[in-house]
């Protein structure tokens, strides 16, 4: 049985704050993304994390020619295993624009070997994972592949995944032992106990960079106290709804930029919460 997530389900998962809340309640996120020439991927993930409530957002990236003055929202770090170890208790989201060089594989191997608790993998991190011999990952990890990435993780063709999405999602979850989000027009989420479906996304999301935004959103919700399944469900739902809300403003689906999606996040969360503001 596949459970379809609706707005009521998502609303109940939105993190809450009280008058006594501080940035500590928002948790800490470390985005490991944006290698040489691909700074934008890391920026998108980090900005999405700040827009989704993370108390602290760190970005480990290639700092060459980095336009840091334009993005004071997060704390910057060079790629460093030492720095990664210092932040290993945070939610670590890894992959967009990272590249697959041996130096990056060392970072991923550390996370796997050390069984770091809260990790979200996407893009290049999934590509690297597909080349490694891994028995199972901690159940608290989250993998966010599209059909092509899932195919590489399983050693099958993209066509076979497209034809039997549920079956291959189940295979991936059993293989890695953690939460798997299969992205697409109908995104499917499995933790081995049940499969949940989020189908409110739009064709506007079929553009490079929107997945980087989703990674930052899931990581931020995970840092705020939601468990691995809840964070994945909420992030995916709000991500899809934000694209729909943006289109309802009279925008054409061809024109959505990842930055538009990020700017839409606050309005979509506010609307979903019920427009109730407690001061």
TrEMBL record:
PROSITE patterns: YJEF_C_3. It comes from the Bacteria. Its cofactor is Mg(2+). (6S)-NADPHX binds at residues 41, 97, 146, 212. It holds the Pfam family Carb_kinase. AMP binds at residues 183-187, 211. Its EC number is 4.2.1.136. The keyword Transit peptide does not apply. Keywords: ATP-binding, Lyase, NAD, NADP, Nucleotide-binding. InterPro entries: CARKD, Ribokinase-like. It catalyses: (6S)-NADPHX + ADP = AMP + phosphate + NADPH + H(+); (6S)-NADHX + ADP = AMP + phosphate + NADH + H(+). Belongs to the NnrD/CARKD family. Homotetramer. This is ADP-dependent (S)-NAD(P)H-hydrate dehydratase. It comes from Bacteriovorax antarcticus. The lineage of its organism: Bacteria, Pseudomonadati, Bdellovibrionota, Bacteriovoracia, Bacteriovoracales. The gene is nnrD.
């Amino acid at each position: 049985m596949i459970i379809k997530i609706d707005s009521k389900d998502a609303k109940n998962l939105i993190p809450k704050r009280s008058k006594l809340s501080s940035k500590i309640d928002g948790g800490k996120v470390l985005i490991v993304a944006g290698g040489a020439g691909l700074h934008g991927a890391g920026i998108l993930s980090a900005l999405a994390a700040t827009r989704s409530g993370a108390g602290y957002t760190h970005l480990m990236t290639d700092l060459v020619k980095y336009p840091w003055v334009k993005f004071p929202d997060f704390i910057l770090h060079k790629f460093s295993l030492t720095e990664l170890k210092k932040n290993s208790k945070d939610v670590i989201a890894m992959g967009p624009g990272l590249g697959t060089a041996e130096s990056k594989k060392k970072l991923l191997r550390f996370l796997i070997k050390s069984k770091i608790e809260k990790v979200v993998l996407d893009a290049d991190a999934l590509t690297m994972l597909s080349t490694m011999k891994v028995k199972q990952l901690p159940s608290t990890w989250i993998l966010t592949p599209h059909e092509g990435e899932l195919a590489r993780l399983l050693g099958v063709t993209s066509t076979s995944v497209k034809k039997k999405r549920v079956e291959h999602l189940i295979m991936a979850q059993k293989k890695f032992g953690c939460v798997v989000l299969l992205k697409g027009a109908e995104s499917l989420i499995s933790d081995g106990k049940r499969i949940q479906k989020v189908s409110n996304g739009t064709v506007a999301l079929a553009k490079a960079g929107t997945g980087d935004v989703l990674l930052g959103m899931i990581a931020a919700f995970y840092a705020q106290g939601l468990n691995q399944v809840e964070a994945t469900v909420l992030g995916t739902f709000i991500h899809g709804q934000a694209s729909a809300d943006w289109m309802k403003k009279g925008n054409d689906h061809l024109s959505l930029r990842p930055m538009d999606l990020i700017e839409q996040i606050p309005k979509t969360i506010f609307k979903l919460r019920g427009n109730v503001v407690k001061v």
